[in-house]
Prior knowledge:
It comes from Sphingobium wenxiniae (strain DSM 21828 / CGMCC 1.7748 / JZ-1). Belongs to the small heat shock protein (HSP20) family. This protein is of the alpha+beta class. 14% of the residues lie in helices and 30% in strands. It has a domain at 37-78 and 90-127: Immunoglobulin-like (Sandwich). The chain is built from three helices and seven strands; from the N terminus they run ααβββββββα. Strands 1-2-7-6 form a four-stranded antiparallel β-sheet, with no helix packed on it. It has a three-stranded antiparallel β-sheet with strand order 3-4-5, with no helix packed on it.
Amino acid sequence: MRTNxxxxxxxxSTVGFDRLFNLLEAGAREDDGYPPFDIVKDGExxxxxxxxVAGFRPEDIxxxxxxxxxxxxxxxxxxxxxxxxxxxxxAARPFExxxxxxxxxxAGNASFENGLLSIALKRVVPEAMKPRRIEISxxxxxxxxxxxxxDKAREAA
Length: 157
């Protein structure tokens, strides 16, 4: 049983969390589960989304990656009118699947084989965001002794 939750009071009392609340609200929306999909972690920073799109051809499907959102849309061409269906079990309805991607995850190649659409994803962290070691420089000998301030009168003597 799924219940709706109102994030309105939290939105009013927080600053900078709009993206988080949008993600939570998007996850709470009902999903019809079509087309079914798998998400597989292939390696340390590589993933693959596979959608079961039986009955669709590659030219019927559009994959769009924009910012942190991957959208897969399918619209099947009209039937040519040959034959009369006694039972139609292969879904032919149009669909749109959206996948919210984490920061620095980029969509790569898409392939279509045996009714499965596979989209490669890779996390690419920019060099500026990666941790780097900072060397500490300084002279150890200069810090070993403490000198008192020199008095000009003493120096004259």
